[in-house]
Amino acid sequence: MTDIFTAKMSSYSTTDFEAERASLRKQLQAAETAAERREVMRAMAALERKEHAETYEKLANE
């Protein structure tokens, strides 16, 4: 798996985050090894960090 979060530099909308989260949940369910599960969990954590960073940035600009 590549790091899809560093590749996507544009802002996500709420539905983008929800769609990505749903995709990652499916990947987690399909993961067969502990290494695959760890990788998906890291991607989920990165998504959460990106979502929160964008939220804080929007609040700071208001």
Give a verbal description of the structure.
It is a single chain. The protein has one domain (13-61). The relative contact order is 0.15. The protein is mainly α and 62 residues long. It has three helices and no strands.
Key terms for this structure?
mainly alpha, disordered N terminus, coiled coil, 3 helices, about 60 residues, elongated, about 80% helix
Radius of gyration: 13 Å
SSE sequence, one letter per element: HHH
How far the N terminus sits from the C terminus, by CA atoms, comes to 36 Å
Helix content: over 70%
Uncertain runs are: 1-9
What characteristic shape results from the CA principal axes?
elongated
Q: Specify the biggest β-sheet.
A: none
How many alpha or pi helices?
Answer: 3
Helix and strand composition category: mainly alpha
Average pLDDT score: 84
The structural domain count equals 1
Q: How many strand units?
A: 0
Approximately how much beta-strand content do the residues carry? under 5%
Pfam families: Antitox_halo (PF26044)
InterPro entries: Antitox_halobact (IPR058985)
Coiled coil: 14-50
Keywords: Coiled coil
